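[Automated response] Your request has been received and processed.

Submitted sequence:
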Amino acid sequence: MSAQPEEAPAPPSPAAAAHLLAQLRADRRAASWVPAFERDWAKALEDSRHTYSLTPLHDVVRSWQLRVAAAPAVDAFTDSGRDESGFVDLGDVLGVRR
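Generated structure:
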Protein backbone atom coordinates (compact mmCIF):
# COMPACT_ATOMS: atom_id res chain seq x y z
CA MET A 1 0.00 0.00 0.00
CA SER A 2 1.41 3.40 -0.90
CA ALA A 3 0.73 6.62 0.90
CA GLN A 4 -1.22 9.14 -1.12
CA PRO A 5 -0.72 12.86 -0.50
CA GLU A 6 -3.67 14.69 0.92
CA GLU A 7 -5.47 17.06 -1.37
CA ALA A 8 -4.24 20.58 -0.85
CA PRO A 9 -7.01 23.12 -0.39
CA ALA A 10 -7.59 25.36 -3.37
CA PRO A 11 -5.93 28.75 -2.95
CA PRO A 12 -8.20 31.71 -2.27
CA SER A 13 -9.06 33.89 -5.23
CA PRO A 14 -6.71 36.81 -5.95
CA ALA A 15 -9.33 39.26 -4.69
CA ALA A 16 -10.21 37.25 -1.57
CA ALA A 17 -8.14 39.42 0.77
CA ALA A 18 -9.75 42.62 -0.51
CA HIS A 19 -13.25 41.15 -0.18
CA LEU A 20 -12.44 39.89 3.30
CA LEU A 21 -11.08 43.27 4.40
CA ALA A 22 -14.23 44.99 3.11
CA GLN A 23 -16.32 42.47 5.03
CA LEU A 24 -14.30 43.09 8.20
CA ARG A 25 -14.66 46.86 7.84
CA ALA A 26 -18.44 46.49 7.64
CA ASP A 27 -18.62 44.28 10.74
CA ARG A 28 -19.40 45.62 14.21
CA ARG A 29 -16.03 44.25 15.36
CA ALA A 30 -14.16 46.38 12.81
CA ALA A 31 -12.32 48.40 15.46
CA SER A 32 -10.43 45.33 16.65
CA TRP A 33 -10.59 43.00 13.65
CA VAL A 34 -9.31 45.32 10.91
CA PRO A 35 -6.04 46.20 12.69
CA ALA A 36 -5.52 42.53 13.59
CA PHE A 37 -6.09 41.43 9.99
CA GLU A 38 -3.77 44.13 8.67
CA ARG A 39 -1.09 43.07 11.16
CA ASP A 40 -1.45 39.39 10.16
CA TRP A 41 -1.43 40.35 6.46
CA ALA A 42 1.71 42.48 6.81
CA LYS A 43 3.56 39.66 8.58
CA ALA A 44 2.42 37.13 5.97
CA LEU A 45 3.46 39.48 3.18
CA GLU A 46 6.93 39.81 4.67
CA ASP A 47 7.17 36.03 5.13
CA SER A 48 6.02 35.56 1.55
CA ARG A 49 8.73 37.90 0.27
CA HIS A 50 11.39 35.90 2.08
CA THR A 51 10.14 32.48 1.05
CA TYR A 52 8.89 33.29 -2.46
CA SER A 53 5.68 31.49 -1.54
CA LEU A 54 2.08 32.67 -1.43
CA THR A 55 1.20 30.13 1.25
CA PRO A 56 1.49 32.57 4.20
CA LEU A 57 -0.93 34.95 2.47
CA HIS A 58 -3.36 32.14 1.69
CA ASP A 59 -3.17 30.97 5.31
CA VAL A 60 -4.09 34.44 6.60
CA VAL A 61 -7.08 34.67 4.27
CA ARG A 62 -8.29 31.18 5.19
CA SER A 63 -7.93 31.72 8.94
CA TRP A 64 -9.79 35.04 8.81
CA GLN A 65 -12.53 33.55 6.64
CA LEU A 66 -12.99 30.90 9.32
CA ARG A 67 -13.13 33.55 12.06
CA VAL A 68 -15.79 35.50 10.17
CA ALA A 69 -17.77 32.31 9.53
CA ALA A 70 -17.61 31.34 13.22
CA ALA A 71 -18.59 34.78 14.52
CA PRO A 72 -22.38 34.17 14.47
CA ALA A 73 -21.96 30.98 16.52
CA VAL A 74 -19.74 32.80 19.01
CA ASP A 75 -22.28 35.63 19.25
CA ALA A 76 -25.09 33.15 19.84
CA PHE A 77 -23.10 31.47 22.60
CA THR A 78 -22.25 34.72 24.38
CA ASP A 79 -25.82 36.01 23.97
CA SER A 80 -27.19 32.82 25.51
CA GLY A 81 -25.94 33.92 28.92
CA ARG A 82 -23.82 30.86 29.56
CA ASP A 83 -21.03 31.36 32.05
CA GLU A 84 -17.66 30.88 30.43
CA SER A 85 -15.55 32.27 33.24
CA GLY A 86 -14.30 28.83 34.31
CA PHE A 87 -12.51 28.10 31.05
CA VAL A 88 -8.86 28.60 30.18
CA ASP A 89 -7.88 30.52 27.06
CA LEU A 90 -6.43 28.11 24.51
CA GLY A 91 -3.76 30.69 23.68
CA ASP A 92 -2.52 30.48 27.27
CA VAL A 93 -2.24 26.70 26.99
CA LEU A 94 -0.65 26.48 23.53
CA GLY A 95 1.33 29.69 23.60
CA VAL A 96 1.75 32.11 20.74
CA ARG A 97 1.56 30.50 17.30
CA ARG A 98 4.00 31.72 14.69
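Summary generated for your ticket: The two ends are 35 Å apart (CA to CA). The helical segments are 16-26, 30-51, 55-79, 90-94.
If you did not submit this request, please reply to this message.
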